[in-house]
Specification:
This protein is an alpha/beta fold. It contains 7 helices and 11 strands. The strands form 3 sheets. It has a 6-stranded mixed sheet with strand order 4-3-5-7-6-11, with helices on one face. Strands 2-1-10 form a 3-stranded antiparallel sheet, with no helix packed on it. Strand 8 and strand 9 form a beta hairpin. Helix 2 packs parallel to helix 3.
Length: 236
């Protein structure tokens, strides 16, 4: 599925073909099969206990993009719906323990037998993990708020030995680009979390309005906040 200007669309499709992007991996023995031959293997993503708004949104995004890619329906279920046994091919969201040192935005993608586990914080970690899964193994690409590439897949798998952890080098990440500054949900797909100098509300689904989203010191022009002239100018 491609949205946007038709000329740009054709150019991007050709470029993706040359680069070999947007192609799902083929399955090997023991790999976790998330989709196969017209039917989602498990058809579910499992929420952690007492999920946050961001974790719920992560599950909804996974289900929505699986529908776009495969045509299959994925159900979002609570942890208590597994009956003690998670179905093969399920994606399981796990709230990471602080000892895992993932912070607010880090995540781990890990194969656990015949299921895929995404570990991350209640803030943005699980959401970023879902987007990494969709990018790395589904071939999804988000180039602008109105231009995305979502391949049509007949098979979607992840390796049986998958164990990937990512932690951002910078706590705040921002591109001074109008599209991401004014479209927080698009920026979240790019794992950008800085929205200062804008009046755009940042929804709880992508972590809410913390200091990294503009409620604090921003990233420059900070002297008036650190030393407000109303308090210090007359005396100094």
């Amino acid at each position: 599925m491609v949205k946007g200007n038709s000329d740009v669309r054709e150019l991007m499709i050709c470029l993706l073909a040359v680069l070999g992007l947007g192609t799902a991996a083929s399955a090997g023995a023991g790999d976790v099969v998330l989709f196969d031959g017209g039917a989602v293997a498990a058809g579910r993503i499992v929420l952690p206990p007492a999920p946050s708004a961001s974790q719920r949104y992560a599950a909804e995004e996974y289900a929505a993009y699986m529908k776009k890619m495969t045509g299959g329906d994925v159900s979002v279920v609570g942890a208590d719906a597994s009956g003690g046994r998670t179905k093969p091919g399920s994606v399981v969201l796990v709230t990471a323990d602080p000892s895992e040192n993932l912070g607010e935005d880090g995540f781990t993608l890990r194969s656990r037998g015949d299921v895929l586990e995404i570990r991350g914080s209640r803030v943005r970690g699980c959401l970023y993990g879902v987007y990494e899964l969709l990018e790395r193994f589904g071939g999804c690409r988000w180039y602008a708020s109105d231009f995305e590439v979502v391949p049509k897949l007949s098979r979607l798998v992840v390796p049986e030995n998958l164990d990937v952890t990512e932690r951002p080098a910078f706590a705040m990440r921002q591109a001074w680009w109008y599209d991401v500054k004014t479209n927080p949900l698009f920026a979240a797909k790019l794992r950008l979390n800085g929205f200062n100098a804008t009046d755009v509300p940042v929804p709880e689904e992508i972590g809410g309005d913390t200091f990294r989203f503009g409620a604090g010191l921003e990233n420059s022009h900070t002297l008036f906040k650190l030393m407000p002239h109303q308090k210090y100018f007359k005396e100094h």
